[in-house]
Amino acid sequence: MLVTGGVRSGKSVHAERLLAAEPAVTYVAAGPTYDDADWQARVARHRARRPDGWTTVESTDLAEALSLADGPVLVDCLGTWLDAVIAGAGLWEAPAPEVEEHVDGLLTGVVAALRGAAAPVVVVTNEVGLGVVPEHRSGRLFRDLLGTVNQRVGRACDEVHLVVAGRVLRLPEAVGSSRSR
After folding, report:
1. Which pick of 11, 69, 99, 159 has the fewest CB atoms within 10 Å?
2. Are 87 and 36 in contact (CB under 8 A)?
């Protein structure tokens, strides 16, 4: 399942509630793994509100995290993951096609792992169509890439939920998708 929404929309809380009945969940904090105080504080706040049986894994290798999990997984969030993989590869200043190729390669593995998951997986992302994106090269690149990431992951999921102001809307199948036929 893909859960999308704007910043502070309630999407992470909704995703956590979807898996709350599960006794053991692998929570993948998909963002920077370096010692960033703001990131560590965010992970700590999320960890504090989750059930004790949940395990937190901090990783940008989503394909590996999904393949190693032996039960339900919550991935939070594709937006922080995208920023971390671009920064980690030193590609923020690279030509857009080079960045797109790098992300596409990683995304292929993520989508394959999602499709092969034996247990429920909930992936959280930011909906770039609803957010403010800085009008400079890296802002446009990030918006465009995250839109592509969201579409590809969304096609690999059975359900997509949009969260706005804490309200949840289950989105219908995409027109022309194999599931809508």
Report:
1. 159
2. no
> Residue 30 class from Cβ within 10 Å (0-12 exposed, 13-18 middle, 19+ buried)?
buried
**Which residues touch 95 (CB under 8 Å, ≥6 apart)?**
none
**CATH classification at residue 153:** 3.40.50.300
Q: How many domains does the chain have?
A: 1
Q: What is the pLDDT of residues 91-124, one digit of tens each?
A: 999 999 999 999 999 999 999 999 999 999 999 9
In which domain, by residue range, is 29 found? 2-180
Element (H, E) at 76: strand 73-76
What is the CA angle 176-144-89, rounded to 5? 120
CB-based contact 9:168 (threshold 8 Å): no
Backbone angles phi, psi at 174, to 5 degrees: -70, 145
Residue linked to tokens 């504080």: 41
pTM for the model stands at 0.89
Residues involved in catalysis:
46
Residue 125 near residue 50 (C-beta atoms within 8 A)? no
